[in-house]
Amino acid sequence: MSLLGDGSKSATRTPVRPQSASPKKKRHARAFEVDKPVVGAATLQNTPGTQGILSTCANPQCATGWLHLWRSRSRPVFEGGWNCSATCTLTRMEAAVRRELDGRRREAVAHRHRVPLGLVMLEQGWISADQLRQSLSAQKKAGGGRLGNWLMRQQGVSEKLITRALSLQWSCPVLTLDYYDAGAMAPMFPRLFVEAFGALPLRVAAGQILYLGFEENLDPAVAFAIEQMTGLQVEIGLIPSQQFQTAKQRLVCANFPHAELIEAASEAPLTRVLARALERSKPADARLVRVHDCLWLRMWASARTQSVNMVQTEGAGIEDVICSLVAG
User: Fold this and answer.
1) Taking residues 285-314, what's their average pLDDT?
2) Close Cβ partners of 293 (under 8 Å, ≥ 6 residues apart)
3) Domain contains 291
4) Of the residues 28, 34, 154, 166, which has the fewest C-beta atoms closer than 10 A?
């Protein structure tokens, strides 16, 4: 992703050669015309999370012109761009909130399976028609409950078969808890998302792929938000229920980054709260994404790198703000 706040220009130098030099001397002169560093060039080129003297504000409506050359302010940095003032921070946050809320209006409806779980298992020969009828009857009489649980409780069907059938429904893999480290996974996203959406980060492979597990229903919206926030490719799958609950319990007891929960009656106060959070924390990087009806602002105290170790080991340098709109 390009850094919107990087308005630096590369410095060039035109070598000066003696005018009276002979062709042979000119060749020798050219041999010594190496690229030497230009004094002050380091200040003309920015790196993520830092700002040089010629940095430009990431707000396209910024009206300060060159006045920010004399400002000592180098943060906050939001979505790769530096904000030169609190006014510019608010303007950019308004655009980001509008972007995310517009996406909420286009969110797809809940997924509905074309083939029910019972029929999937019946077609695979894992249960009989009689077993399916009895479990459906018990489910109806009790007024609900998961069909898989009724099959396990009444018909002795194994949890492994239930999970395999669910994976066929979703066309996804069954994930394992190999190399699962709850403490390392806790900084991936707020504890609230584990409890509210049933998402369980399991491990990161090759520093690029995050495996995200669910108990019964996959949530692609959560996976997409985590991809946007972390920059990792997210692969989702199912975990057998008993293993999921055990792993979830270990995760919710781990140390998560500090999170602030906010409710707002309308878009305007919500935007102001998020902008104030940026101005208060002065992060080296920050990003806003939507997770269903929540807006998730994550702020990093130090500039992010391409390595996932930044996510795993520096949870103390991460701060989350989770906002939701409530009816007035």
Assistant:
1) 77
2) 104, 324, 325
3) no
4) 34
